[in-house]
Amino acid sequence: MKKSVILLYILLLNTVPLIYSQELIKPAKLNVKWTLSPLGDAHVETNMTMDAAQWDNYKKMVGNNADILKRQMERAFPGYFLQNFNYKEDVMNRGWTLSFDALGLSRINSKGLWQIDLNSKNPDVTKLSDKNYVLTSNYATGNSLMQEIDNISFPDGASDVKQDKDAFGKALFIYASSPGGGYGGWITLIFGIVLLLVGALLFFRSNSGTVRK
Amino acid sequence: MKGKLPAIICLGAGVLLLALHFLHFGKGSLNVTIKHADYIMPAAYKVYANSDALNGEYYLFKMLMNNDGKSTLTDVKVSYRIPNYLDWTDLESVPKIYPGQNVVIRCYPQFKDDIVNKMTQSKEKVEIKITYNGGQTQDESYDFNMMGRNQFVYTDLPPEEIASYPDMFRNDQLIGCFVTPQDPIIKYYTQQIQEKVMKGEEASVSGKADDAVKFLMGLYAATYVSHMVYSGTEGIPQKLGDISSLVQSTRLPREVVTGNTGLCIELSMLYASVLKAAGLHPVIFLIPGHAYPGIMVNGQYYAIEATGIGGEGLGNRLSPSDALKAGMKELNEFIQNVQAGDNRYSYVDIDAMEQKGVIPMELKDDEFLRKKIDDIAESFGGGTRTVPNQPAYGNGNENYAGGGNGGSGMSAYSGVVSFSYPSTWKRYDYPVAQWPFIITEIDSRDGTSAIDVINLNGASSSAQAIEYVRQTIARAGRYMRYQYVNSNNGYDIYRGVTTSSAGSREWEAVFRRSENGIVGVTIGGTGFAQKQSMFNSILSTVR
Fold it and tell me: Reading across the β-sheet that carries A132-141, which strands appear in turn?
């Protein structure tokens, strides 16, 4: 998921002179929260706060065209369909939040398990709980250090969350989950059959009673 | 009859529920949304084929399949074809799509190598077939533009999305597809230059900047003596689906050589192809309305003005050394503009783009074109023809204007600071493009000592400046330890050691405030103790 934002930050932080005045020790931090639905879509929320120089540069680059962020995200995630973008700025704290839905993040593999491709080899993954994992990555972009923290929350029904690799050595998350969809159809089918059987039973009972009278 | 009423109600409700199930709930339904490329450039067919190339953003199409029915779709298979180009090809199988679930399929078409024989643009169709539930099918299709192999479309963004200059040239990252070092014709041309113009060269083996610059000038000399000329080619705005872009007909490097003519970007692609074929690290610098080629050697850039060949009809042909001077002047301006944040100035690092999956097209050998190369190589003349002002093979971006020799064996540096240094030392402005805060480096002849002039706009203190430098060079594997010594006459004095795979170098540095930040001078090298008195005498001249 690291690739997600490299493109974005090259756009945002690449103007060299202004970078000089940034805080030199701490890398800029980007938080990305992925909340998966039972059907494999994800609600994604990214946020970042900046120092004054970065914010000034960011506003010069983006201006009132926050849709640039949308385009950058669409390029960063060609594997999904992105929709429902929402962008908020917190100018007093020099920060912004961008949220969107990523359709088709997780899918069912040939073994019937759900699978998420992480698009990186040997990511630094920390398990917070059975359904909550954190990926941390550090990288340089432009003349700035960046720390990206991806927090992934699996759906309530998920179980047996495991890390695995694909044939090319890229990391995967695999998990089991019942999406809960389609039960309406089975309920109507079962109820329908039960009602038919009950109706038939009552019909024959009432018929046999008539004969005895 | 009254006794049968509950039975009739139950039977009726049962039938109703079953009917509901089979008529409504029982069906899965597939809803499809397609996003597709409005055009395909045959020259970039290896990028379109690779889902990892450039983060996978150059796909033929991607398709969102949504099950908006009430039962699970099973065994969903997607295949596609492009009549005249690709037969039916299985794309992906999805075992299940639950009601409400979304699945995204991407298509990276494996075009055959002969796609690069397509010379003109045409409208083509993609047909997509989806089968599911063991027999149900759904067909989709759309049109797109298949460009000719020479056509380069500058952007893939619709006009309403273009907000800045880089957006208009979004496809610059595909320029590497037109750089063809593996083309047998280009290889042959390179060999002819190595043999007949350079009379042997070792730039890629020695790793020395002098040798690489010599090759750069030799290549220019080859185009000069063969009377290659600068000339324009077709470039017209076109509307391709939702995209409106300038579409430029770009001659391939083999066509530039054998046609003996090229535009700035075409000459740059030719240079990059030959330089790469010779084992060097080519770069193409892109500025508003122009492009010129260069190389990177040991972290330093060198550039040449390839269009200096002009042509008799145009007059004003530059000699190789003047073309190099012009290129280096442009390079300095380039770095200054990048430093100032002007995003119209960019460069394409061919090796770096290749690592990202920008792989050039495959071209076949051609006996006729080889013969044309032979004819051109005759003009190289084995030394019988000369180039005016035959290359002095100067040194990269050394300051051709000279440093103002004081006549006492010392030269004067004058800029954000001023000082004197031995006149035998060589000066390089902006020696490392990635580190624009080093505005000048001056190296001793033997390479064991160096002076760096540093300018950090925006830094508020020398401590902040030196820490920034430490962090930045650490990313390139150079580790710096330092300590503050004292302050004297407004200068903060530091001493330190920088360690890299090449060894350790001790240094001294002085920093002071400037109007916009911090400026400073570092001086040091190997054998610091023996040279310290010389270093101190240089530092004592810093103003």
Answer: A81-90, A95-103, A42-49, A28-36, A144-153, A132-141, A124-129
